[in-house]
Amino acid sequence: MRRFYTLLAEKLKYYLWGRALVNHMSRHYRLYENLEALYTALILALLIKAFLFEAYKIPSASMMNTLIEGDRIFVNKFSYNFSNIQAGDIIVFKTKGIDEIYSPDKPYYIKRVVGFPNDRIEIRNGNIFRNGQLMTDPPFFLENYYTDFYGRDTFIVPDGELFVFGDNSRNSSDSRDWGGVPIENVMGKAIFRYWPPSRIGFLHGESVNSTLSRERNTRERYHNGNRANAAER
């Protein structure tokens, strides 16, 4: 930058105001160095936000217990330029064009991907089946318990769309309710929780906490007990 300032001084020395500015810069060079660092950092931050990463705050309980209300996360905005969206990815997407949920006050949603164009998604006994195959990767799919909506347990994903579910299945408005998400609406992949400090870490489709696991086991024991009683009768 010194070369730039030297060139600038050469151009401005022919003007009275220019000489005054150059003199001021020479007397207060530390101030201008700090300003230079500040606007450089600002430009880098804007570039990172536009093309690489963006921070989001979780606004609701629909992704509990993977993400709870108030969690703050980083979303990778460029990863899908180099790799495909995978089942189990947690994505942030625009709601524009999804009439049932679009609102200027809430332009983005966060959910987990469960299906791709033309997939047949079924919910059986709390599990998700994709094209007849039990979804097991990531293991979260086996440990979470999924409920159907309005008695429907089978869904066909439309062309050009993804099906996304909330992890807090009983308290999530998602594709079971309002359908698919246009693929072009996907903003990026949630990769890292940076707040609160006690929950800092990468998001790898990790398991839910022991509360949901115990709930799942309780439901299974209840259903197995009912089947056993029915068999005895």
Summarize the structure.
The chain has 233 residues and is an alpha+beta fold.
What would you note in describing this structure?
The protein contains six helices and twelve strands. It is α+β, with helices and mostly antiparallel strands. Strands 1, 2, 3, 4, 9, 10, 11 and 12 form an eight-stranded antiparallel sheet that branches. A four-stranded antiparallel sheet has the order 7-6-5-8, with no helix packed on it. Helix 1 runs antiparallel to helix 2 (16-27).
Furnish the topology, listing elements before pairings.
Blueprint: H1 2-12, H2 16-27, H3 29-51, E1 53-57, E2 72-76, E3 90-94, E4 108-115, E5 120-124, E6 127-130, E7 133-134, H4 140-143, E8 154-156, E9 161-165, H5 175-178, E10 181-182, E11 186-195, E12 201-202, H6 210-232
For the record, give the distance between the C-alpha atoms at the N and C termini, rounded to a whole number: 88 Å
Main β sheet profile: 8 strands, antiparallel
Class inferred from helices and paired strands: alpha+beta
Beta content comes to: 15-25%
Number of helices: 6
Q: What is the β-strand count? A: 12
Rg, nearest Å: 26 Å
Low-confidence segments, ≥5 residues, pLDDT <50? 207-218, 225-233
| Order of H and E elements | HHHEEEEEEEHEEHEEEH
General shape: elongated
Average of the residue pLDDT scores: 80
**Helicity range of the residues?**
25-40%
